[in-house]
Design brief:
Layout lengths: L9 H7 L11 H4 L10 H8 L39 H14 L2 H10 L15 H23 L8 H24 L2 H10 L20 H4 L2
Length: 222
C-alpha cells in the first residue's frame, strides 16, 4: 500500500509553516518580531521600524484619534492604534512593495486602497474589533509609560526600549498567570509549574536587568 501522506522532515515543515506567531507570550503581536534573521529584507525592517515612535525611538508609536469629539475624564487623543495614514511615506511604500510581491493584483489593489486606514501592528487581527484593538493599545501605552517611569525613578533599570519591553512582557505574563490561569486551573499546580520555571520565559529579560525588585504594575500606572 502506498502511503498517501509520507513523513516529512521537520526542517521542511518549519520552512513552509506560515504561522509566524511566537508561543512564548512575548507580545509578538505588539512588537512585531525581530528585524533580523532569514528572509528579513530592507522593506520588512522599514515596516517594523514604523511600529516605533518616529522621534522617541525607545517608545512605541501610538495612533491619534481623528475628530474624536469630547473625551471623558480629560483623556488625551492618543487612543487609537497606529495607522499607515499617520506614518512616514517610506514605511507605506515598503508595505506596498511587500504586499504586491505576495498578493494577486485584485487583492493588492484592495490592500492599497485601504492602506491609510490599516493599523501598523504585528498582527492585524488585533484590529478586528474595538475591544481587542484597545487591549493592544493598552500595551503600547504601558510600554511608553514604563520608559517615562524608568527615566524619572532610580530603579537600577536603564530607561531604554529593551527594559520597557521586558517590563511590559513580564506584566503581561503576570496577568496570564495570576489573572487567568489561577482562575481556570488549580492555583497550587500553577504555582508549582512557575516555581519549576517552565512557564515564565527568561528570554523576556534584558541582559542588563538589575537585581532586586521589578517595578510593578501599580507603580507604573500611577
Amino acid at each position: 500500500m502506498v502511503n498517501a501522506h509520507p513523513p516529512v522532515a521537520s526542517s521542511t515543515v518549519e520552512s513552509q509553516f506560515r504561522n509566524a506567531r511566537s508561543p512564548r507570550f512575548d507580545l509578538d503581536s505588539v512588537y512585531g518580531g525581530s528585524a533580523v534573521g532569514d528572509g528579513i529584507d530592507a522593506d520588512v525592517v522599514k515596516v517594523i521600524s514604523g511600529l516605533r515612535h518616529p522621534t522617541l525611538k525607545d517608545k512605541m508609536r501610538v495612533g491619534t484619534a481623528i475628530e474624536p469629539g469630547p473625551l471623558p475624564d480629560n483623556l488625551d487623543q492618543h487612543r487609537d492604534l497606529p495607522r499607515y495614514g499617520q506614518v512616514q511615506s517610506s514605511v507605506r511604500e515598503a508595505a506596498l512593495r511587500l504586499a504586491q510581491a505576495a498578493m494577486t493584483p485584485e487583492a493588492f489593489q484592495k490592500f492599497s486602497d485601504t492602506l491609510p486606514q490599516r493599523a501598523i501592528i504585528g498582527d492585524n487581527r488585533n484590529d478586528e474589533n474595538l475591544v481587542v484593538a484597545q487591549f493592544h493599545l493598552s500595551f503600547l501605552r504601558f510600554h511608553n509609560k514604563a520608559i517615562d517611569y524608568l527615566a524619572s525613578h532610580d530603579t537600577g533599570w536603564i530607561a531604554d526600549f529593551s527594559s520597557a519591553q521586558a517590563l511590559t512582557r513580564l506584566h503581561y505574563q503576570w496577568l496570564i498567570v495570576d489573572g487567568y490561569l489561577k482562575g481556570v486551573c488549580d492555583p497550587v499546580v500553577v504555582d508549582r509549574v512557575v516555581t519549576i520555571g517552565h512557564l515564565i520565559s527568561s528570554s523576556s529579560e534584558p541582559s542588563s536587568m538589575p537585581e532586586g525588585r521589578i517595578p510593578d504594575l501599580e507603580m507604573l500606572c500611577r
